[in-house]
Each structure stands twice: as C-alpha cells, then as structure tokens.
Amino acid sequence: MACPSAQRLGLRADRELSLQPGRLPIADHALTFSPRHVLFLTLVAVSLPAFWIPLRTLFSYALWGDNFYDPYSYTLAIPLIGAALMFVERGTIFAKVDYDFRTGLTLLLVGLTLGVTAGFAKVQLGEANSLSVSVFGLVSCWLAAFMVCYGSSAFRKGFFPLLFLFLTVPLPDLWLDKPIAAVRYGSTEICSMALNLAGIPFVRYGYEFFLNDVSILVARECSGIHSNLAILIISLVAGHLYLTSVWRKVVLILFALPIVCVTNGLRIAGLTLLAEYVDPRFLQGRLHYQGGMAFFALALLLLFAILHCLRTDIRTSFREKGGPKDL
To answer: For 172, which DSSP code?
Structure first.
C-alpha cells in the first residue's frame, strides 16, 4: 500500500500536468534535435544557396562596404537577435505546435517569386532595390519554413521576433534619405543651441558654422545613421521585452530620433569647441572618427532612462488601481 505522502506527490504531479494540456515536449526541450527542428534547419539551410548571390552582396556591403553602403552594416546582427528572442521566449512560442503546409507553402511561393523577380529585373529595379527585394524574399522563405514546421499558433506567439527578421532587409536609398536629412537637421539645431548656451560667437549659414578660426559643415556623413538605426533596434527589442502597452512601445520608439539628434549635436559642438580653442586638428583626428562610442553610450543612457520612466508609470498604475489592468 502506498504511503499518503507518495499519494499526495502523485496527485500534485497529475494536477500540474493537467494545468498544461497544450504544452508539448518541444517547449521544454528546445535544444534537442526533434524532427521539427531538423526539418526547419534543413529548409533554412536550403534557402541559403538559393539566395546565395544577394546574400554574398549583402555580406560584402555590410562587412567591407564603403561609406555609401555603411547603413547596411547592422543587417547581419538582426538574425542573431531574432534567434535570441525566439530562444528566450521558447516556452511561450512552442507551447503548442503543429504542421501547417498550406500557409507555409504559400509564403514559400511568395518568397521564391520575389527572389526570381529581383534577379531578372535587376536592371529595372536598380542594384540596391533589387538587393532589398531579394532579401525580403529570403526572409519570407524563413517565415514559410517556420509556419510549415510549427504552425499558426506558434507563429502568432512568435509574431514579434519573426517579423523582426524583416529588419535584415536593407532599406532602399529613397527610404533612408528622409531619416538622414531629419537627423542632420536636428543635429545642426542642437549644435547651434549648444554653442549659443556656451556663449560662443558664430555665424550660421544652413548646415555651416563659421567661428573665428574654424568653420565646420554638418555633412550627410555626420548624420549618425548608424547610431540612429542601432538605437531604433534597441528600442524595439527593449519595448517588446519590458513594456506591455502598445502606445508605450510606440513612445519609446519615437524617442530614438530625438535622442540621436541630441547626442550627435553635442558631439559636433564639442568637436567644434576643441577645434576653436585647443587645436584645429581635432576635426580630422581620431576623436572625430572614433569618438562616437561615448556619445552612443550617452544615447543608451537616455533611452533606458525613458524606458525606466515608462515602466515606473506602469508599476504606479498597478498600485493605484489595486491590481493588473490591460495596459
């Protein structure tokens, strides 16, 4: 006859299992090579040689590109971040899985069509736009593989990390012109405000500043596009992980552009003051070309300060309203 304690343990284990009727072993053993994982990795591996030419071009631009293609450097990190998010949330995403060949094959057809179209219409689209369409098709094939192997329920639970992969698609030049112009203009305004607050006499003509001994031009390359894209990506990930309300996530994302304008404008103003009162060679030195990391760290501090304020507001609402609400 079983002892009462053993019976209680058995009842407790049965009760815990009954509370998770839809949970499958794949959610608890996400690192094991189940047939689903093997099939998914096989489909992803097959897509790489199928899109090898645009992938090779994207790698070339991201790792060894010149200034014109520098904005593409962030694209290689996106799949790694997306995979990390999937791993962190694997218990929720893979709680219920199924095969969905119909929807998956439809997505696969869309991805392959985009890839073929980009290859044959490269002259009409232009090299940059053709690359964007090809990578969009590749990401569509990855999403198709996920849908085939894990089903629509897992797709809905992993909606953010899956759609996050589309940031791998390099933005066409036309889409980058306006953000670059906005950051350039904002940085120039912040620099002008900083010089005025410091009591420095200068004459401004558009994006140019004329001081006693030096003159500077806030060029397109000074727009801080790398910092802006990095802050945008970090704000997306941080909002997804730490905020539950959609409007709070939007507020955090919208702060990315002003934050970059402030830090970039302060960097330009600091270099201008050093060139004017210390040594004009600061405008051509290492601080000019490699000193952006300190101001990027400042941008991160500002971003996380805003995130903290949004999270604090949520906790305050919890205490004031007496419990969790739909925030």
So the answer is: P
